[in-house]
Amino acid sequence: MPERARSLTVAITGASGSLYATRFLVRAVRYFDPLYLTLSGPATRVAREELGLELNLADFRPEQLMPGVPGVDKIRYYQKTDYGAPFASGSAAPDAMVVLPCSMGTLARIAAGTSDDLVCRAADVMLKERRKLILVVRETPLSLVHARNILSVTEAGAVVLPASPGLYHRPSTVEEMVDFVVFRVLDQLGVRDPDARRWMLPPDSTE
Ligand SMILES: Cc1cc2nc3c(=O)[nH]c(=O)nc-3n(C[C@H](O)[C@H](O)[C@H](O)COP(=O)(O)O)c2cc1C
After folding, report:
1. 181 lines ligand 1 (CB under 6 A)
2. Cα(207) to centroid of ligand 1, in Å?
3. Of 93, 101, 96, 124, which Cα lies nearest the Cα of 181?
4. Atom 19, ligand 1: which residue's CA is nearest?
5. Boundaries of every domain in the chain
6. Whether the Cβ atoms of residue 107 and residue 151 lie closer than 8 Å to each other
7. 14 Cα to the center of ligand 1, angstroms
8. pLDDT one-digit tens code per residue, 51-94
9. pTM of the entire structure?
10. By CB count within 10 A, which of 63, 79, 166, 179 is most buried?
11. Does the C-beta of 44 come closer than 6 Å to ligand 1?
12. Whether the Cβ atoms of residue 36 and residue 76 lie closer than 8 Å to each other
């Protein structure tokens, strides 16, 4: 099990899978403090398609993604143009960062070190500080360009964790499939959520 992360940045980008972000955040508020959040513009476009939410980066509030969830007020949102965010500096970087879902565009910019928005700058900080960076990429099929970018960020220390749920726990809902990935991300952060189903282990196992 990796060392337990205490502080975390979450970035939501414009790949399909807004539900990964919302279901991850509902769990993350229980485990991380501070918990920072930023979104790309295309993330709001995808959220409109997939969640039916009309989000606006300028006046976004985390409650819009997860209304009524206890702890949602703890989440500190920063606009993607705000390079003054604490997690944009190595001196105040959190223990870990998760980009979920992570588009191929954001993957490419992280691989190239462009730091041209807060998502990419924060990821760049995690790599330079040798902290945990998890990219929950989603695209299919993958081009050679995508594969090279995955190789590049992996060599730089990131964990590429594709949004690719297993089926061996026989999920019967989309939420169960999404949670398969959410729990794998939490595992990477050193958090063993008691609701995670584990191969050959009883439910709520903390082994
Ligand atoms: C409904 C919808 C679904 C999309 N799904 C994906 C996807 O699964 N993977 C991906 O890499 N891009 C996807 N895109 C395209 C990205 O949103 C687009 O490349 C965008 O520039 C990514 O910008 P960002 O990385 O700053 O969020 C999707 C776009 C839309 C509108």
Report:
1. no
2. 37
3. 101
4. 105
5. 8-188
6. no
7. 4
8. 999 999 999 999 999 999 999 999 999 999 999 999 999 999 99
9. 0.96
10. 179
11. no
12. yes
